[in-house]
Amino acid sequence: MTKVAKLTECGPYDLVDGVRMFPFWGEGVMMNLVDLEPNAIVPVHSHPHEQLGLVVSGEITMAIDGVDHPLGVDECYQIPGGVEHGATAGADGCRVLDIFQPVREDYVARAGGEA
């Protein structure tokens, strides 16, 4: 089944204080546009899904497996499933586009949908 949407209208859903997501998913992969307010923090966590990310605007420091990676516009990251990671937005906030494989069922549930 084909789906078409404006990503910024797929939500928003709050992840943690100062962090909002706009999810869009298909049968086996998920996109998630994430807006982080200035200095917002995504706590260290892990999940079984592989994650790719692209910084669309602003700056973010990704802490991946205990190593800090300061990233700016057009820089990207890859996180294997099961690896601990977190993030801190820069002083002006940040927007990132994350891709997950397989689909994050917890995000789909939060959006009231089905994977």
Question: What does this entry show, briefly?
Answer:
The protein is mainly β and 115 residues long. It is 5% helix and 56% strand.
Keywords summarizing the entry:
mainly beta; 115 residues; globular; Jelly Rolls
Structure description:
The chain is mainly beta and 115 residues long. It has one domain: Jelly Rolls (Sandwich). The chain has 1 helix and 8 strands; from the N terminus they run ββββββββα. A hairpin with a 2-residue loop joins β1 and β2. The longest helix is centred in the C-terminal third of the chain and has 6 residues, at 105-110. The chain starts with 12 loop residues before the first strand and ends in a 5-residue tail after the last helix. The model has no long low-confidence stretch (mean pLDDT 96).
Strand content: over 45%
Shape: globular
Report the uncertain regions.
none
Give the strand tally. 8
CATH class bucket: Mainly Beta
Give the overall pLDDT as a whole number: 96
Helical fraction equals under 10%
What is the CATH superfamily? Jelly Rolls
Give the CA-CA distance, first to last residue. Answer: 12 Å
SSE blueprint and pairings:
Blueprint: E1 13-16, E2 19-25, E3 30-36, E4 41-45, E5 50-64, E6 67-71, E7 76-79, E8 85-101, H1 105-110
Antiparallel strand pairs: 1-2, 2-3, 3-8, 4-8, 5-6, 5-7, 5-8
